[in-house]
Design a protein that fits this description.
single chain, 416 residues, mainly alpha, Growth Hormone, Chain: A, 14 helices, 81% helix
Amino acid sequence: MEVAKRKSIFKELLVYKNYSKLLLADFISRFGDSVDSIAYGWMVYLLTGSKLLLGTLFAVNALPGIIFSPFSGVLVDRLSKRKVIIFGDTARGIVVLITGVMFYYNILKPWHLFVFTFFNSTFEALTSPAKGVISTLILPKDMILSGSSFSTSVNSFGELIGMSLAGVIVGTFGISGAIIIDAFTFIISGLIVGFLKIEEVVSKDKEVNIKSYFEDLKEGILYVKGKRIILIYILMAALVNFCLAPLNVLMPAYVKEVLLSGPEVLSILGIGLLLGITTGGMVISQISHKFKKSTLAIMGFLLLGVNYSLISLPGFFNNLFSPIAVATCAYFFIGFGVPLVSTPVRAYILTNPPSNILGRVVSLMSMCTLSAIPLGGALTGVVSQYISTEGMFLAMGICITIIALMPLLDKEFCKE
């Protein structure tokens, strides 16, 4: 079937039963993540009473993804992707379940949190490349872009529902109950992946030892280094995470100091962002075949840059619109721009490298994009001591807009 003749991308995607199962597994997992993000953070603060430990735990959570992602890519290229996901999701579910049970019985100590967080993030670093690669085994190459964007929407919708119900779940089952529910979402996700029926070619032509392992890792690094377009896309994905870090770090200060509001507006902005991501993913999955990947990515960057700058200027709209309404709209369009950037990046990375090296390429991209988050957060913490929150947002918005135009100078990139 020709791409141009497609009438309903959604219906075409859902014809692939394996894709539908994977979509359901990811939806359930993301729902649990949203519930956990609220319950776990509150549990940590109750247990420690320390904002410093909250920040340190956030850093520990990011470390395994940065350290182990390249190595997990080698394993994913050698092992069954389906089995890696089943193992990783089940292991994460068990770790979270132990955490919830120990908190319920008042035997959880702060040092336990660091150990459990490290193990949980390590298992996530293992499964992340496998989850990225497995879509190439269940969808035709020309549908990966649409499938990826639709998955982004469904996952964001799961997060939105989880965030909306988190308060009710915590109020009904308590913090430990909410964490245990998240644990079972991981286990259920792993079980669903177990029902996938896919043919995998697992490489067994190399002896498994440290030397061959590092040879495989080197091969992946050299491949990425030699592909300029892949480097550009990885850089773009990393820059999105880096530039969006101030939104996460300074959002409470922005709401309190600029919008002169409380936690309820913080929630409204978060919902606006998720709705934007959900809507953007839906729209892109329908129109992606009409545009080049490079065009979508640049459009997304421009949308991010303009609206990032806009949220720094709510006071200018006092006489026309509510500053909160302006900020919420800007957050929505920032969210809309995220899949415009991330989906073409993901689609190009998944469809161009050879299948036997794909896990390593995906894991290297994951390492670079994850590294950008703490770097952006650290820079935000330092710079925010010298400039206002509005000034930080405006500067980041201008930087993103300028960065969006730079790839236009690369003719090879613009052909994609």
